[in-house]
Amino acid sequence: MSALIDKPARRCEETRFRLTGPIVLLYLVAFFGTIAAVNATMIYFALSTFRGETEAQPYEHGLAYDKDIVAAREQDTLEWRVSAHVTHAGAGQDLLDMTFRDAQDHGVTGLAVAAALEFATDKRRDRQISLQEVEPGHYRGTFATASGLFDLAIEADRDGRPMFRSRNRISLD
Predict the structure, then answer these.
(1) Contact yes or no for 119/135 (Cβ under 8 A)
(2) CA-CA distance, 96 to 126, in Å (whole number)?
(3) Are 151 and 118 in contact (CB under 8 A)?
(4) Which of the 8 DSSP states describes residue 85?
(5) Are 100 and 107 in contact (CB under 8 A)?
(6) What is the CA radius of gyration of the chain?
(7) What pTM, to 2 d.p., does this model score?
(8) In this predicted model, what pLDDT tens digit does every residue of 86-118 receive, in sequence order?
(9) Is 163 in a helix, a strand, or coil?
(10) What is the distance between the terminal CA atoms of the chain, rounded to a whole angstrom?
(11) Which of the chain's ends, N or C, has fewer CB atoms near its CB within 10 Å?
(12) Residue by residue, what is the 3-state secondary structure of 97-148?
């Protein structure tokens, strides 16, 4: 029995993990480094993607809101009927046809009509369209083929004075 008692006991301290200063420093650097890396990634994506603004100068547009309301009421008194139709013209081009009719169902002539297809989240997909009058009240313009959900923004001026503005959501396939 004495042989069993004389055997030295195994020390627990030799196999147990010891937390030292360099290891604590390594954990702290790894923890805050991970937070800094995630923050840097989030900042990059926040600055390089859609900003959420639809207006180039939203403050100035807000100040002109009352003028926009007056212009919309004046536009309503004209009682114009405006229709737009998009067709595929081939060779990577689409065709936008618009008709402007007044209250007496006559074609509205002499307008400078511009339209834009505005993609909601990516300004690089926007298309500007200049339309020319092809017959009284009928305007036509071409643009590079597009697909997706767009806002069709229409502006018609006569002699530099805005006569008609509209914004409608359309889907192009």
Answers:
(1) no
(2) 15
(3) yes
(4) E
(5) yes
(6) 34
(7) 0.64
(8) 998 888 899 999 999 999 999 999 999 999 999
(9) strand
(10) 92
(11) N
(12) EEEEECCCCCECCCCEEEEEEEECCCHHHCEEEEEEEEECCEEEEEEECCCE
Integer Cα distance of 153 and 92 in angstroms: 21
Rounded to whole angstroms, the Cα distance separating 140 from 84 reads 10
Residue appearing with tokens 């065709």: 95
Chain position carrying tokens 């889907």: 171
Measuring CA to CA, which residue among 143, 148, 161 is closest to residue 119?
A: 148
Name the pairing type of β-strands 148-158 and 112-119.
Answer: antiparallel
- Show contacts of 20-25: CB within 8 Å, 24+ apart: none
Q: What is the DSSP string of 66-84?
A: HHHHHHHHHHHHHT-EEEE
Of the candidates 76, 94, 93, 72, the one whose C-alpha atom is nearest the C-alpha of residue 85 is 94
Q: How confident is the model at residue 29 (pLDDT cuts 50, 70, 90)?
A: very high
Nearest to 114 by CA among 166, 171, 60, 59: 166
